[in-house]
Write a structure and sequence with these properties.
Strand order of the largest sheet: 1-2-6-3
Number of domains: 2
Strand content: 5-15%
Number of strands: 8
Distance between the termini: 56 Å
Number of helices: 10
Largest sheet: 4 strands, antiparallel
Length: about 250
């Protein structure tokens, strides 16, 4: 936990290292090199988006509206099992991911681009919605990002940067997950603290109550564990859901 605190402190103190004459445009070959570097660190997903103001926490501020979003895998064994070292493993993942995010910020600065890191444990924005905007996946009922590669098993971080020509996502092919979640609801049924509740409206929406969620403090991963996207392949669930929807439309 001490190391995480130092990483978060570095996020602030290192802002003085931003280039004094910032670049705002990257060459065509920069992004592939950057993504290759990120994946060499164990980063799973990389996406790009413009940060919408409503995603920024009220007591936080970001320096740039251009965002690079990252995901890193949470091991399935850790999600599916309870054991004494579970909390330590979770904190270690936060710590390692935070350090990698800082290294990617340094990489951008070395290439002339100012940047601001957003640590996976103490961020500036609503991460699942930001990652959804970046096209990495879709935010499910339980406030978890669901992706084809990892289902709900990932942590998220971000970098805000001066780069204006990032390959921003224009289309999200994962929007079908919203309808799937409306028919599923397992995260709502299995949450022991009732942190996910159905809204009393006609839009099949849910509300996530962060102050009731104990996922980070108690390392409970029940909603993540019971999510169908943790148990089955993304493509399998999508195919079944599409077939079911088509069958229902035929009657």
């Amino acid at each position: 936990m001490l190391s995480i605190g130092k990483n978060v402190e570095y996020n602030v103190k290192s802002l003085k290292n931003n280039p004094s004459n910032p670049k705002t445009v990257v060459s065509k070959d920069f992004i592939p090199k950057f993504e290759k570097y990120a994946r060499s660190m164990g980063i799973k997903g990389v996406g790009y988006t413009k940060v919408q103001p409503d995603l920024i926490f009220k007591d936080r501020a970001i320096l740039f509206e251009n965002a690079i979003v990252f995901t890193k895998e949470i091991d399935q064994f850790v999600v599916d099992n309870d054991f004494p070292e579970k909390q330590a493993k979770d904190l270690k993942l936060y710590d390692e991911f935070g350090k990698k995010t800082n290294e990617l910020v340094d990489y951008l600065r070395e290439n002339g681009f100012p940047a601001q890191a957003s640590h996976p444990s103490v961020g500036f924005v609503t991460y699942p919605s930001l990652a959804q905007s970046a096209g990495l996946g879709w935010r499910g009922k339980g406030n978890l990002l669901i992706t084809p590669e990892l289902g709900p098993r990932q942590k998220i971080s971000a970098i805000f940067t001066s780069i204006e020509n990032l390959p921003v996502n224009e289309h999200n092919e994962h929007s079908w997950i919203s309808d799937y979640c409306n028919h599923c609801g397992k995260c709502i049924k299995t949450c022991p603290k009732n942190a996910i509740v159905e809204k009393s409206d006609n839009f099949n929406r849910s509300e996530f109550i962060p102050e009731l969620c104990k996922g980070c403090t108690d390392i409970r991963t029940i909603c993540m564990k019971e999510c169908p996207f943790n148990k089955r392949e993304y493509s399998h669930l999508k195919s079944r859901f599409e077939n079911l929807s088509q069958s229902n439309n035929e009657y």
